[in-house]
Automatic annotation (TrEMBL):
Pfam families: DENN (PF02141), TPR_DENND3 (PF25570), uDENN (PF03456), WD40_2 (PF19056). Gene3D superfamilies: 3.30.450.200, 3.40.50.11500, YVTN repeat-like/Quinoprotein amine dehydrogenase. SMART domains: dDENN, DENN, WD40. This is UDENN domain-containing protein.
């Protein structure tokens, strides 16, 4: 066995099925519903160098030194979650010491003295445990000519082209981080929406916000703090002879002196953007956290990695409180106290940012116009010179249930567009977007927009739009409520006592913000209630029906245009769906128009909620942190008797216990939550816990008194069962990538083992040649790792996309999902399946079929005009000229998508023509392999880097096949099926002989042996297929030499071989019976005469007669047809007189065999053609190209089908329909 095969055998796998089965259990498991998902650092350092961005954004300012008015490429410097820390530019990207793994028995006791000396413990712990980075298992050592990576005490030199290419790849495994690779790479751009510039003087830190949308339409919220660090920049110079030449490139290195620059060096300030990602819009809390982190990094730049890891691990361990009655307070970096509160109303997402910002920048009339535009689903674009303001105001207007609750925004939502994505505003459909006001001149060119200018406080409606007026009665009540709220805000401000410490000021400020937000939310909920309360009166919940006409008839004439437009929107449709769902309790009919407004004047400062103070967090003692959190929760449980607070504490107790893998105790805590406040019960999380229990644990839980008494626990069990059928994919990963080069045999075994592919040696060989560029005999481990990683990333992304089952055919799967793009039907994503192309509408999770693949006429790349410049777009033309072409601006991915679509389109057509579903499966497999090949080729570590789009054409097997058969398409309708006997084998081999046998019956009616197709191969193997479903039943190895002929004799099949033996196989059991060894040379053919008496013909070694007879047959007209291959002739004789009747000249074609099917003679040739002659008129009725090699054998199946086999270069068996009248 080769060492590569041994390497394959040593590969170990683990499956993410149950938490108890994971081999490595981390001390710090994920805390459910935690404050921060991950932290990312994006910027420039001495490793990235100063590489000018391509293309350059429009100039923002002018400077006499080009260095300071050039935008530079940025890269991800760090990406850290609660269980992995990745520094992509390091030699070993994954930090093996994160999170710190500790031994509980050797940890110092965590007492009050420890708390007073937290920093000392941290330093002692990191020193004793070797917290510093250790060398990795291997390093990437790919060399690039002209690049210098050595570090000196003064500066580093870089190959800028190499670094620019490297920035496109992030060395992360697919399942390592909460965000997928697409979202991570998009952060690199949107962290610096107008480009990353270096400064000539020190800058203060700045904050802006982002909203990220993943492939499922879910949102994550990013808070970004940009700080500037001192570096030195030196002009890159080359010494030629005695002359020093300078160019436009710059070298940079860290500058620690803080004194004057040396010589021609420039002291520059390089941007570093720190980003926290959260599932909840805690903008204010995370703003404070990041500001403190930036302060620490400025004062301790050398230890930035350690500080960042400690910061991330702490925030990912802080849970979000489940209700407003309980707040959570924690001490960040042992210095400042941070308080996290929950939402005021169930169903509304938490909001700690000021909702009144929109009311400060816009008049009340503009606010009402803005709400009308949102409810009628207009295209909205927000403009401001302050990027942080854009996201906050957009977030107020969007449906994260702040102003339009209970409606939800279902459309694309991009509150901050970077300069190179401005053309997205040209997309059709509905959206909310925001951009810097410097792009206003471009926005004004787009028709049909509602523009919100926050700098001048104005909402502009395009004249071509018809935005109706909101009904006047609810507007008047809303106006009164807002005026009263403003007066109340003034009263709250004037009556608040003065505070003299910063911490007290922040506490009071946050409390004031919460109270103001509550007033605004109450007014907006009242407005929505007054607008749509009557909808409930016209619904029939049992029939799930809404009487739209009755509802409109009861409205005032002036109000009808507003409701007619709103009732057609997706927002209202989703609201109505929730209203008519069985779980919806409905609206209170007795509520009057002025109920809420009269209550606003009596709102006072909210009584302070209970604050749970979490213990100090010490990096390295994180396992004790959870234990101490549980102690603090238990203290509150014992001291407080309020139902809401006890329910919240029980919830937190369950969350912490689950993070320690104490699942049964966590379930007990959540059952306690149900007894206090059922609204706090985390149904989905409990369902996940139940699914992770072992069989013994499930038996104990389901038999317990707790389970018998809990209604929600049983509901979670049913929820978990419902989800099981939807999510049965098992994620399988390599625990170790092979370190040695992989030869072709080892590569084939690895690919089929890891990727669960259809056995296809040729596809694997094509992939091997493409990865090696056809120049090497092995695949290096780096290339294989990148290919495997790309495959897994695509699989994980596809698992996140949930297309409704009624839209897909059985077993139809997703193959590829695009990045967010602008299409003919709006902004969203493309999704490819083996049968069709879908459009996933951004934000709404709605799916629209773009085109069936068999309806595609052709796919091309075109140039489409945009606001900035012409951009590359994918164009799909329909077969029906009346159907408008579909375009998608996929930019750099357009060529990739053209390759994938062409391959799947060709496979779909060939599968239909051949009536072979296996062809469709293989084409889908090819598309997956091509996608992984292209994605991995974008990594600098892959051997095919830079050649991926050229070499991928060699993988487009079915597209090339389709192009070859386009001229023969009319004849393809007679092809019934296609088999590939060489598929399960490592090498392609020829099919030398074939035989069709009908079913066998026991008695008169009972069939105990189905019809079969027998294939004798050149390598001595016999393959037997079920002739009903065309599946392989068995493979027998009979000889070491080729099998030459087959004949059915009663309940056996006789098999002739080139080794001179005749083998008999029982038809019922498919087992060998006996071997006849009476021949000294090749057994060439059989025939049966006189009641199944068998005669075998033997061809001697010496040359035969002058004219070699290749085949013959006798027709029903008593004619003898003789095939003379070397002359290319068919000679027809009278059967009774043996006189020549007719002579058919075949031209240059050499005859190999003939078969009689009904009244037609089918003739095969060495060139792979089939000729069909009439047995009556002797005329040629049809000719077509059947195989790429010689046709080795022909047989018939009850005169309904003719089957043809081919030689080694083709190696397939085709089945053709017979017809006496070809058209």
């Amino acid at each position: 066995m080769s060492p590569h095969c041994c390497e394959v055998k040593r590969l170990q796998f683990f499956f993410h099925i149950e938490a108890a089965e994971i081999e490595v259990v981390r001390i710090m498991e994920t805390v459910y519903n935690h404050l921060v998902e991950m932290v990312i650092a994006v910027g420039i350092n001495e490793v990235t160098g100063l590489s000018a961005a391509e293309p350059q954004p429009p100039p923002l300012f002018h400077h006499e030194n080009k260095l300071f008015c050039t935008a530079f490429d940025t890269q991800i410097l760090a990406a850290i979650s609660n269980h992995v820390a990745v520094f992509p530019l390091d030699a070993e990207p994954h930090d093996p010491n994160y999170p710190p793994q500790t031994d509980r028995t050797r940890c110092p006791k965590y007492d009050a003295d420890t708390q007073r000396n937290k920093r000392n413990i941290y330093k002692t712990w990191t020193t004793s445990k070797g917290h510093s980075r250790t060398p990795g298992r291997r390093k990437h050592t790919k060399n690039y000519s002209g690049s210098l990576h050595g570090r000196s005490s003064s500066f580093c030199m870089f190959d800028f082209a190499h670094q620019a290419a490297a920035s496109k790849s992030l060395s992360l495994k697919a399942a390592d981080l909460p965000l997928n690779a697409e979202t991570l790479q998009s952060i690199v751009t949107i962290c610096f929406p107008d480009g990353a510039y270096v400064k000539d003087e020190e800058q203060s830190s700045s904050v802006h916000y982002l909203v990220l949308t993943d492939v499922t339409g879910d949102h994550s919220y990013a808070i970004c703090v940009t700080l500037y660090q001192a570096y030195t920049a030196t002009k890159f110079s080359i010494k030629i002879m005695f002359q020093c030449l300078e160019d436009d490139r710059w070298q940079c290195s860290r500058y620690y002196d803080r004194g004057e620059g040396r010589g021609l060096d420039h002291v520059i300030y390089v941007p570093l953007c720190l980003v926290t990602i959260s599932k909840q819009p805690y903008f204010t809390v995370l703003h404070d956290c990041l500001s403190k982190l930036a302060e620490h990094l400025k004062s301790d730049e050398e230890e930035w990695k350690s500080i960042l890891k400690e910061f991330t691990l702490h925030l990912t361990s802080v849970p979000i409180p489940p209700c407003v009655a309980l707040s959570i307070s924690f001490q960040l970096l042992q210095e400042i106290d941070i308080e996290v509160t929950s939402t005021e109303y169930p169903g509304i997402m938490a909001s700690d940012f000021p909702l009144y910002l929109a009311f400060l920048h816009l008049t009340l009339d503009d606010i009402i116009l803005l709400l009308t535009a949102i409810l009628t689903e207009q295209r909205l674009v927000f403009l401001s010179a302050h990027q942080s303001l854009l996201v906050l105001v957009c977030q107020v207007g969007k449906s994260l249930q702040h102003l339009i609750y209970p409606f939800k925004w279902l459309h694309p939502y991009v509150p901050l567009l970077s300069w190179n994505l401005i053309e997205l505003v040209e997309a059709p459909g509905t959206y909310i977007m925001g951009c810097h006001s410097r792009h206003q001149h471009l926005i004004e060119k787009v028709e049909g927009l509602v523009t919100v200018d926050l700098d001048i406080g104005e909402v502009k409606v395009c004249p071509s739009l018809n935005v109706p007026a909101m009904p006047s009665a609810p507007v008047k009540v809303f106006t009164v409520a807002i005026h009263q709220a403003r007066r109340h805000i003034d009263w709250l401000t004037s009556s608040r006592a003065t505070v003299f410490t910063y911490q007290s000021y922040r506490t009071k400020q946050n409390e004031h913000c919460r109270n103001v937000n509550k007033l605004i939310q109450m007014a907006c909920i009242e407005l929505m209630s007054n607008l749509f309360r009557e909808v409930f009166l016209h619904t029939n919940k049992e029939k799930r029906f809404f009487h739209k006409e009755q509802f409109l008839e009861g409205l005032d004439t002036a109000d009808k245009p507003f409701y007619e437009m709103v009732l057609q929107t997706d927002l209202f449709g989703e609201f109505l769906k929730g209203l008519l769902s069985p779980s919806h309790s409905g609206c209170r009919r007795s509520q009057t128009l002025s109920t809420l407004s009269t209550q606003i004047s009596f709102v006072s400062e909210r009584s302070e909620s209970k604050v749970l103070s979490l213990p100090p967090f010490v990096y390295g003692l994180n396992h004790l942190y959870v234990d101490n959190c549980l102690l603090e929760v238990d203290k509150v449980l014992k001291s407080d008797t309020t139902a809401d607070i006890r329910g919240a504490c029980a919830y937190l107790r369950g969350v912490y216990l689950a993070s320690q893998n104490k699942r049964t105790q966590a379930l007990e805590a959540f059952c306690e939550v149900e007894s206090y406040n059922s609204r706090l019960f985390p149904l989905r999380f409990v369902a996940d816990i139940l699914s992770s229990l072992s069989d013994d644990e499930k038996k104990a839980v389901y038999g317990s008194f707790m389970y018998q008494q809990s209604v929600l626990l049983k509901e979670a069990e049913h929820f978990q069962k419902d989800q099981t059928n939807m999510e049965q994919t098992i994620i399988m990963e390599l625990s170790e990538i092979p370190e040695a080069d992989i030869d072709q045999q080892g590569f084939t075994e690895l690919v089929q083992l890891l990727f669960d592919l259809i056995p296809d040696r040729e596809a694997t060989n094509r992939l091997f040649d493409a990865l090696t560029l056809g120049e090497r005999t092995v695949v290096d481990p780096y290339t294989f790792e990148e290919f495997y990683k790309s495959w897994k990333e695509n699989q994980l992304m596809l698992q996140q996309v949930k297309i409704p089952a009624d839209l897909l055919d059985p077993e139809e799967i997703l193959l590829k999902v695009s990045d967010m793009c602008k299409c003919s039907c709006g902004t969203g994503r493309l999704a490819l399946t083996p049968k069709r192309l879908f459009f996933l509408h951004g934000g709404s999770r709605k799916y629209r079929e773009v085109i069936q693949l068999h309806d595609i006429k052709h796919v091309s790349i075109t140039q489409q005009r945009s606001l900035l410049k012409p951009i590359s777009a994918l164009k799909i033309v329909h077969n029906d000229d009346k159907v408008k072409s579909f375009t998608a601006t996929l930019k750099g991915d357009s060529l990739e998508w053209r390759h994938l679509l062409n391959e799947m389109w060709a496979g779909r057509l060939l599968a239909r023509e051949m009536q072979n579903p296996n062809t469709l499966d293989k084409a889908a497999q090819n598309v997956l392999l091509m996608n992984a090949f292209i994605q991995s080729g974008r990594s600098e570590f892959a051997n095919h880097n830079g050649y991926e789009l050229e070499e991928v054409e060699s993988l487009s097997f079915f597209y090339q096949e389709r192009c070859c058969k386009l001229n023969l398409a009319p004849e393809m309708k007679f092809l019934h099926h296609d088999l590939d006997p060489s598929g399960p084998m490592q090498e392609r081999t020829g099919v030398m002989t074939i035989l069709y046998t009908a079913g066998l019956y026991r008695g008169s009616t009972t069939q105990d042996c189905e019809p079969c197709l027998w294939c004798g191969l050149e390598n001595g193997k016999l393959l037997i297929y079920n002739a009903i479903n065309w599946t392989l039943e068995i493979q027998l190895t009979l000889s070491s030499e080729k099998l030459t002929c087959l004949v059915a004799v009663q309940d056996k099949v006789w098999v002739g071989s080139a080794d001179g033996n005749i083998y008999t196989v029982k038809r019922r059991t498919k087992s060998t019976s006996q071997t006849l060894s009476n021949h000294d040379d090749t057994v060439m053919d059989f025939t049966t005469v006189d009641n199944d008496r068998t005669i075998a013909m033997e061809i001697p070694n010496q040359p035969g007669s002058r004219v070699q007879l290749d085949c013959f047959l006798i027709t029903a007209q008593n004619e003898i047809w003789l095939g003379v291959g070397q002359l290319g002739q068919i000679v027809i004789y009278y059967g009774d007189t043996l006189e020549q009747k007719h002579l058919i000249h075949m031209g240059r074609h050499s005859i190999t065999n003939m078969v009689l099917a009904s009244d037609q003679i089918w003739v095969g040739s060495e060139e792979g053609h089939l000729f069909v002659y009439s047995s009556f008129s002797h005329k040629l009725e049809m000719t077509f190209y059947a195989h790429k090699d010689s046709i080795t054998a022909l047989c018939t199946a009850a005169d309904r089908y003719v089957m043809a086999s081919s030689g080694k270069r083709d190696g397939t068996v085709s089945m053709w329909r017979t017809n006496s009248t070809f058209v």
